[in-house]
Design a protein that fits this description.
single chain; MetI-like fold; mainly alpha
Length: 250
């Protein structure tokens, strides 16, 4: 098991390294057009230039701030709404089809409406991200609640437990893993929502950096922005995994 834990990340790194080497070789050999596809060396130089100019860290900080705020608010709202739906079966039946419809609706289509409601500012970006992450989180957590072991619920009822006691002493503790798994989905959807919002209204952030690169036909900036997004998403996902391990171990 220890060997597998060491071997898997090594293989992952080798796959990435081989991909980058092949990409760079094809670029140097002029087999692929670097104007369209860029190259690892050009992306690296672009990142260094952005870092030295002080722009890169500013864009990363702005995006991370929006992601953290949207993630926290979306998770809180999803948890509270899931509790309300579980506690009120009639409300859950009424809301359920609307949740399905809202979840299937492309959130970027709501962009113009969100900008009119919240203005062309950070509020629109956060609202876009919350709309992107909160619906699927509600569905995930709520379905975890309603699928709690029915025999355990009957046992609690036999001992005259109240609805609130069943909820807080059985249902929620039994679904800790479900809640944490919803966080994994939530963090990725939040990042997607933030980037969509930044592409629409922002003057700062990684989404704006990517948009600016496409507008000036500089694929090096676009690819550099995408590379930074991959790193950010990887780090955020690992942080959620650490939280998962800590909760499970406790």
């Amino acid at each position: 098991m220890k060997n597998k834990k060491i071997l898997i990340p090594i293989i992952d790194l080798l796959i990435v390294a081989i991909f980058l080497i092949i990409w760079e070789v094809l670029s140097q050999a002029k087999i692929i057009n670097t104007f369209i596809f860029s190259s690892p060396i050009r992306i690296y130089k672009t990142l260094i230039d952005l870092l030295l100019n002080g722009n890169l860290l500013m864009h990363i900080f702005v995006t991370l701030k929006e992601v953290i705020i949207s993630f926290a608010l979306g998770t809180f709202l999803a948890f509270i709404i899931s509790i309300l739906l579980y506690s009120n079966k009639l409300l859950a039946k009424i809301i359920d089809p609307f949740l399905t419809m809202l979840n299937s609706l492309p959130k970027v289509a709501l962009g113009p409406i969100i900008i009119i409601w919240a203005g062309a500012n950070t509020n629109s970006i956060i609202l876009m991200a919350i709309l992107t992450n909160v619906i699927i989180s509600i569905i995930t957590i709520y379905h975890g609640f309603i699928n709690t072991d029915k025999l355990k619920i009957k046992l609690f009822k036999v001992f005259k437990a109240s609805k609130s006691q069943i909820l807080y002493k059985l249902v929620i503790p039994s679904n800790i893993s479900t809640i944490v798994n919803s966080l994994k989905i939530n963090i990725s959807l939040t990042l997607i929502g933030v980037i969509m919002g930044e592409l629409l209204v922002s003057k700062k952030g990684i989404g704006y950096l990517i948009l600016y690169g496409s507008q000036v036909f500089n694929l090096d900036i676009v690819m550099a922005g995408l590379f930074v997004l991959i790193i950010i998403s990887f780090i955020l996902y690992k942080l959620v995994l650490l939280l998962n391990k800590k909760i499970v171990s406790n």
